[in-house]
Structures are given as C-alpha cells and as structure tokens.
Write a structure and sequence with these properties.
The chain is mostly beta strands and 310 residues long. The protein has a single domain, classed as Beta-galactosidase, Chain A, domain 5 (Distorted Sandwich). It is built from three helices and 26 strands. The chain has helices spanning 49-54, 204-210, 285-288; strands at residues 10-14, 17-22, 28-36, 39-42, 62-65, 71-72, 76-79, 82-85, 96-97, 107-111, 115-122, 136-144, 148-157, 163-165, 168-171, 180-183, 187-191, 197-201, 215-216, 222-227, 232-237, 242-248, 254-259, 268-272, 291-293, 298-309. The strands form seven sheets. Strands 10-11-12-13-26-22-21-16-19 form a nine-stranded antiparallel β-sheet. It has a five-stranded antiparallel β-sheet with strand order 18-17-20-23-24, with no helix packed on it. The protein has a four-stranded antiparallel β-sheet with strand order 1-2-3-4, with no helix packed on it. The radius of gyration is 19 Å and the shape is globular. 43% of the residues are buried. GO terms for molecular function: carbohydrate binding; isomerase activity. It comes from Caballeronia glebae. This is Aldose 1-epimerase. InterPro entries: Aldose_1/G6P_1-epimerase, Gal_mutarotase_sf_dom, GH-type_carb-bd.
C-alpha cells in the first residue's frame, strides 16, 4: 500500500481489531478498538470527531513524547553551560510540556494492512513549536496483531553538539467507576502544587496498585511520576471481564499515572524515560532518568499493549 497523505487518518486492521493513526495530529494514535459480538470494545479512549477537527493531541487516544517527557520548570534549564530557554515555544502552559513532536505533523512512511511507520524531522527555528534548539529525527513503527499493539520508537540527534533527551507515549484509557490499575513500583514522586517532582517516597497508592484487586482509578487524585517501575502495568475493567497490559523496554524506566479527581473521565498510565523536570532536578541520573545523545547518537525502545477478554 502506498504512503497515505499526512492530513488523513491511517487505518490498520488485523481481524476484528483496528487502529486509527492521526499523523497530522502530532503523530497520534486516534483509536485502538475491536469488534466482538456486534459491539465495539475501546482499548484506548477514542478521539472524538471534534478533537480530530481541532487537531487537538490532548483529545487523541495516545500521542508521542519527544524530545522530553512531562514538564520543564519555567521552560528553562542549563545544559552544557548554556541556558536553554523554551519560553517562546508556543506551549500554552506555565512550564514547557511534553516536547514539541506532539504539536507538529508527522510524515507517513511505509504502510500495510496491519503496520505503519511515521516519521518526524525537527530543524530548529524561531517558529514556536520549532523552538527546541537541537535538530533531531524520530520514527514510530506501529504493528497490530492478534493480541498486541506494538509501538517502537527511535530518535537520532542530528545536531553537531550533545542533546538532552527523553521520550515516551501518553495514552488515555477508558475510565469507569470500576476501572482498576495494577502495577509494581518502588515509590511515588511527591510534587509541588504545579506538579513538579520533589522527592520519591511511600504513598498508599503504591500498595494499592500492587494489591491483588489493584488500585481503583477513583481512589486518589494523581498526576505523579513513579520510580522503580517493573515496566508492566495492567488496566482492568473486571465488571466487563477485560484488561489491557502495558509492557515496555528500557529506557522506559519511569511511569506516570494521571487520574485526576477533578476530571473523572481521564486516566493515563504512561511509559516514559524520564521524571518530569529531570534537567533541573538535583538527584542522581539513575533516579531521574533522561539521557544525553552525542552528535549522531541514537536510541530506540519498544512498548506494547496486550489485550485480554475473559
């Protein structure tokens, strides 16, 4: 199949399972569902027609995070003796958020019935979303099969100097009164009121997620990073007899859970390579994640969602 135009949805199918990609909306996944006994099962929260029309990544099923995950305090940090100022990157938040690739269109590469490759090229400029001062390229290779949706991410530093870097994906799951989250983590990062991490430590949600029944998505007001993630988490709907398991490779050594009390329809469990604000956080690199890519250096990693219906 020839490459699709970047301003149209790309549909992948494998049997009764379907994935919709929205390359023009930040290289996002717009839907992941399947049909069983005449009904549709949404494994990720599907994008609405309004979100697609508005090209709103926050309304998609999941979107990629490049070249960093989550927030950077005041949109500024020091790197290699230089102040990196992202305050002009057009991000409408108090702190820089999620990088820039989620706010720009991706190009569609090879596509077949059940797999696709999306490409992104960043060249710095004064244009808002191009304000990141390091050139890089990224790809997403997306494959759908009988049980699993697999996403492989790749990035290469195209600059002539080292580049600080992080990556991840930001999935939204259907959230109901009976949704449970199962995961094993060592600690939760406490945060400031504007959601910048301060220290990792104990929290009741850590034990709740590790329990046999899992953590209710409504039990805590969460927008937090988690340390010591086993790289596996399951979101379950026991009343519906189904579950989806997220599994990830290194360097996705960190997890974010977003289950806000103020927005009871929202639930995110995200694989990420760095804690929020890692470039400003004064802790050991092993604790906060993130990386530095030398000129021409690259990194790749894979994560997957495996589904189960009882």
């Amino acid at each position: 199949m020839s490459a699709a135009p970047s301003d149209t949805l790309v549909e992948l199918r494998h049997g009764a399972r379907r994935v919709l990609l929205a390359p023009h909306v930040g290289g996002s996944i717009a839907a992941f569902d399947e049909t069983r006994d005449g009904r549709t099962i949404d494994w990720l929260r599907p994008a609405t027609p309004a979100a697609l029309a508005a090209r709103d990544p926050l309304g998609m099923a999941s979107f990629p995070l490049f070249p960093y995950c989550n927030r950077i305090r005041d949109a500024r940090f020091m790197f290699d003796g230089e102040l990196i100022d992202l305050s002009g990157d057009g991000n409408a938040f108090a702190h820089a958020l999620h990088g820039n690739a989620w706010r720009l269109p991706w190009r569609v590469g090879d596509v077949s019935n059940s797999r696709a490759t999306l490409h992104f090229l960043h060249q710095p400029s004064r244009e808002a979303a191009r304000h990141w001062p390091f050139a890089y390229e990224a790809t997403q290779h997306i494959v759908l099969d009988d049980h699993t949706l697999t996403v492989s991410l790749f990035v290469r530093n195209l600059s002539d100097r080292p580049m600080p870097f992080g990556m991840g994906h930001h999935p939204y799951y259907p959230r109901t009164r009976n949704t449970r989250v199962h995961a094993r983590v060592a600690a939760m990062w406490r945060s400031t009121p504007d959601l910048l991490p301060t220290r990792a430590g104990a929290h009741p949600c850590v034990d709740a997620m590790a329990s046999q029944e899992g953590m209710s998505a409504d039990a805590f007001d969460l927008d937090n990073n988690f340390a010591g993630w086993s790289r596996t988490a399951t979101i379950a709907w026991p009343d519906e007899g189904r579950a989806i398991t997220l599994s990830a490779q290194a360097p996705f050594d960190h997890m974010v859970v977003y289950a806000p009390a103020s927005h009871p329809a929202l639930l995110c469990v995200e694989p990420v390579s760095n804690v929020a604000d890692w470039v400003n956080l004064d802790v050991d690199r092993a604790a906060k994640g993130g990386a530095v890519l030398e000129p021409g250096g690259s990194v790749s990693a894979t994560f997957a969602w495996t589904t189960r219906v009882d």
